[in-house]
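Need the bound structure for iron/sulfur cluster, inputs here:
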Amino acid sequence: MDLCDQQLQEIRDQVVNCRKCPLYRERHCPVVGEGNHRAQIMFIGEAPGRQEDASGHPFCGAAGQILNQVLEAVGLKREDVYIANILKCRPPGNRNPLAEEIKACGPYLNRQIEIIQPQVICPMGNFATQYLIKKYGLESLASQNGKLLGISRLRGRVFETNDLLEPSRKIVPLYHPAVATYNANLKPVLIKDYQVAADLLKN
Ligand code: URA
Ligand code: SF4
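Answer from helper R.:
Posting the output first, comments after.
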């Protein structure tokens, strides 16, 4: 185990024992995240669903099937990327995350980003996108008339963070793959946007 593996294991241990918000009470398995510990690209979802909560693996249900297909279509393998969520425990009935839950759980994601140091971060859906836009102070670039734009306006756009990294770290908001479980017509749109993020790795 190298240092990066050790540090990610520490987060796993902390999450398994976490009681920082009430979601620990009803969860079965926390879903910490998985993939390549040296990934150049990270995908961030919202929170575990029923199948993820049962297995402990992110994106293993219906949305995960779509994500796998889209990743394959843009030339990425799940083994090469890292996939995590803002919330590590499932909200009952898959309700939306609460602001205080995001506040309590966010530091685990922040640590994961610090350890993995991806060149590209892709928040999927509105909650993850808002979280990362705020984390990196990109609100003014992602707003109109003082209001943060929604994912349908931000998807596929490339934002640069000011972490003083060389090359700079990019944030690419994307539709959550679950949108294509309701509307199959959106699959080509997903592929087009995810390709924008994948292409950044080639430079
Ligand atoms: N939806 C998410 O946001 N994350 C998962 O892990 C599964 C479904
Ligand atoms: Fe802890 Fe996050 Fe689970 Fe809340 S959701 S109990 S903060 S790991």
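Comments: The mean pLDDT is 96. The helical segments are 3-16, 50-55, 62-73, 99-116, 126-135, 151-154, 179-182, 187-200.
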